Every structure is written in C-alpha cells, then in structure tokens.
C-alpha cells in the first residue's frame, strides 16, 4: 500500500484502499455512456509468440466498458497478419488490427512521404502514431488508453485504474501517466529510469537551476512507463518522437499543450514485469544503450526549445555531474534492496552508469552536429490540414484489410 504524499507539480492518485475491481468497473461502465473508451495496443508480431499476450487477451476479454481495441502490428508478413487477426478475434469488443507492413498502409505512408509528412523511421512511435490516426477516424472513443503487449504480470485492474482519471466526467484531467513498482524476480528493475532519467534530470537542475519543465519532469514517479491515458482531443496537436524518446516526448508535449492541473499520474499495479531489453554494452544501436541516447537527445531538444544553450563544454559538465549523482543513486538503491531482501549487483549497476555517461556525450555530440534535425512525427492537425482526405483513407484501408483477412 502506498502513502498519500504529493510532490512536484502534478497530481498523484494513489492506491490507498485496494478498492474492489468490480466496483470500479461498474463506475467505468457508467462513465462509458458519456465518454466511450478505446484501448491502443502497439505490438510486434513476435509478441504474439511470447508468454504475456495470452493472459492479456484473457483479461481484456472480460473488460465490460471498452468501445474498441486498436492493435498496431509491426514486422508481420501476410501469413503473420492473418494469424494476428485470428488471435485477436477472440476478443468480444470491436477490434481492428492495423497491418503496418501491409500494402494498403504502405501505400498511404508513401503518399505522406511524397509530401514530407511521413514518420522518418519504423518503431513504436510510428506504430502508435498511425493507431492514433485510426482512433481519430473511427470516433468510437472519447477516452484513450495505451499499454504494451509484453506485460507478464497483467490483470485488468491495471486498465481500470489507468482509464479512471480521464474517463470520469467529474475529473478535469486530459492526460494520465501510469506508475508502479519495478520489482520482480527478487530484484529492482527499471534501470534506464533509475540510473539515467532521474539522475540526468537532477543533473540538469543542478547545472541550470530551477525550471518549471525540469520540476515537472521530476514529478513523475516512473517517467518511462509505457502506460498512459488521455482524452481524444489530445491527439490532434500531439507531436511525438519516432524513436525511444516516445515516453519523454509525450510528457514534454503534454507540458507544452496543457496546464499541469490537467495532468496526473496514477498507481496502476502492485507488481509489474515485462520483457527486458539487453543493456548492449558494445552496440549503441540496440538495447538500453540506444534507448539511453534517444532519451537524452529528447531531453536536450526540449530544453533547447526553452532557450537553454548547450555546448561541448556544457556536455562535459553534464557528464561529470551526472556520473557523481548516478553513483550516489546506486548506493541508495543498494541499501533499499538490502533492507527488502532483494538481490543487487553493484558491479553491473555501476557498469550501466558508466555506459550511460558515455552515451550522454554521444547524445550531446549528435545534438550539436544536427541542429536542423526534425525528430518529431507531424501532428495529426497538420496532416488533416495538408491532406483532409487522409484520415478517411486510413479508416477505409484498415476496414478493407479487416474484410479481406478476417478469419
């Protein structure tokens, strides 16, 4: 059971009473009459072969308040898409699977490329972006939630708690971020958040002093959580990165577009575990290594838009300050782990901090060398302005795939 402490600039909604799920779902059914709900699931085909998805589908099949479930499927050929359609057809809700590698959606992507409006690289950001476009076109949901398909500890109470703040018509929240304890298999997980994001934000605060943005980012208990919910109108002006900076980018966009009293975070799970990325010590194009570079660049870009000036000398100071703060955090987490009877490998933790410190310099150098880089996918407002027919064409393409390939 968590405490009720509030800190930072956004509201934290706790799990104070372990309220019965059935009671919360009854309220969500009532909310859905006024504010229908859509669930977005970005997925790789490989996740259909993983251990997590069967349980997720079993749990979702018992969710009574959803108007639609939209799955974005990446890295799938035709036979794999057909199999995905079969797997997801078990769900009783209105379900659509976006075949991102299929000819219809590829043709639409090519149309955007001709206008310089298409996502620049494949990945979760691109997948989520197209799904958001479909949700805009379907108009079935007023409240939208997103979570991944690799959560091995999933139960439907996570979804109920994630939806509740933006679905409740008596609340004024436009956006809600999920958080949870990243402890599983007898150890503390969440390395990128623990050892990179929090120490880096504290570093930037130390070097640049207090800024409202850094205080806002420091308010989130788990900034890299892949679970969040929002009202549908948020989608129109959302500009998201296509790389691993997705979660940081979304938080930054919400800060830009809304007052902080319209944003919150909610405790959605007592325990949480999912597929873990390798650290990738010797390859900065994969694993946590690439993730750390993309996330760092995302933070640097955002601060630059607020007038913060970076240079090679500043990045050397950031690296040195980060390294000291991160090592202090390692000691803190070690003591926390020992008190709770958890395993903790100081050597691996400090190796990871050393890698992240090197990658901060790589991210900084890339930032300085590419001042004209446009890392964000265009907002859907821009798409509909440049190509008013596009959302209708996207909807028709998804429906045509559904009609052709349904089992």
TrEMBL record:
InterPro entries: Nucleotide-diphossugar_trans. GO terms for molecular function: glycosyltransferase activity. Keywords: Glycosyltransferase, Transferase. It is an enzyme of class 2 (transferase). The keyword Transferase applies. It comes from the Bacteria. Gene3D superfamilies: Spore Coat Polysaccharide Biosynthesis Protein SpsA, Chain A. The keyword Transferase applies. Its EC number is 2.4.1.266. This is Glucosyl-3-phosphoglycerate synthase. It comes from Microbulbifer aggregans. The lineage of its organism: Bacteria, Pseudomonadati, Pseudomonadota, Gammaproteobacteria, Cellvibrionales.
